[in-house]
Specification:
Bound molecules: manganese (II) ion
Distance between the termini: 24 Å
Main location: membrane
GO molecular function: hydrolase activity
Protein name: UDP-2,3-diacylglucosamine hydrolase
Catalytic activity: UDP-2-N,3-O-bis[(3R)-3-hydroxytetradecanoyl]-alpha-D-glucosamine + H2O = 2-N,3-O-bis[(3R)-3-hydroxytetradecanoyl]-alpha-D-glucosaminyl 1-phosphate + UMP + 2 H(+)
Number of domains: 1
CATH superfamily: Metallo-dependent phosphatases
Strand order of the largest sheet: 1-6-7-8-10-9-13
Number of helices: 7
Helix content: 25-40%
CATH architecture: 4-Layer Sandwich
Number of strands: 13
Shape: globular
Largest sheet: 7 strands, mixed
EC number: 3.6.1.54
CATH class: Alpha Beta
Length: 259
């Protein structure tokens, strides 16, 4: 069991924010989902920061990789930023190789995972969500290895064609793996409780599982919550938090009580 980081103070304090995750954009393909995202960016309210909580991209093979489709996304982000929309990004299990070079080009401020923030006066701990899925032992072992700086450097040192071929193979393997599962592996509820105990009073907010929901827990006589963001298909689905409250757009989260 890995030790969780502790936070002295929230990294950001914001009056309002929008949250999305799990777009799984195939950035070398001109897809309806990419168009939906770029169009959605044109409709973001000015001065409302956008948090991208991982798996924005289906895969990532290095910031030195460019593609015309990717440039349209970078341009859409630049246009939104010109209207006062800021971006905050933490990586997911598929796009964990996104680095500072691409983030700077897109105008995304990178966040560690997990990270504590305060939105509209309420405390949140943000995470992609894969760290909570501790029942997937094979994945967690792979994750620990793949996140080593030396392993990442070795991968990124390969010539670009080799990395593109690797990404194609991984996509096929991932499809076969997901197809063999009855449903994607969900969070481990014991691990969720450990996080909630580590971060008293914060709402745990994550994506990854594609099981959009508001979960309520009773922990040390406190009512606690875990909010799960929806994945995108070809339409936008997001969470907006403003001083008046939280609104889910394009989706109705399941309500789940844990005793
Ligand atoms: Mn994920």
């Amino acid at each position: 069991m890995t030790a969780l980081p502790t936070f002295e103070a929230p990294r950001l304090r914001l009056p309002r924010a929008t949250f999305v995750s799990d777009l799984h954009l195939d950035i070398d393909r001109d897809t309806p989902r990419l168009h939906a995202f770029c169009e959605w960016l044109t409709r973001r309210p000015a001065e409302e920061p956008v948090f991208l909580l991982g798996d924005i991209f289906e895969f990532w093979i290095g910031d030195d990789w460019t593609h015309p489709v990717m440039e349209s996304l970078v341009a859409a982000c630049a246009a939104a930023r010109a209207r006062g929309v800021s971006f905050h990004f933490l990586t997911g299990n598929r796009d964990f190789l996104v680095g500072e070079t691409f983030a700077a080009r897109a105008g995304w401020a990178m966040l560690p995972d997990p990270v504590a923030v305060e939105i509209a006066g309420r405390a949140f701990v943000l995470t992609h969500g894969d760290l909570l899925c501790t029942d997937d032992h094979a994945y967690q072992a792979w994750r620990a290895q793949a996140r080593q700086p030396a392993a990442q450097a070795a991968f990124l040192a390969q010539p670009l064609p080799a990395r593109i071929a690797f990404a194609q193979r991984s996509r096929e393997q991932s499809r076969a793996y997901q197809g063999a599962l009855e449903s994607p592996i969900d969070v481990n509820e014991g691990e969720v409780r450990r996080w909630l105990e580590t971060y008293p009073s914060a709402v745990l907010l994550h994506g990854h599982t594609h099981r959009c929901a508001v979960h309520r827990y009773s922990i040390a006589d406190e009512q606690r919550e875990r909010w799960v963001l929806p994945e995108w298909h070809d339409t936008a689905r997001w969470l907006e938090i403003v001083p008046e409250g939280a609104t889910w757009h394009g989706v109705t989260p399941a309500r789940v009580e844990h005793r």
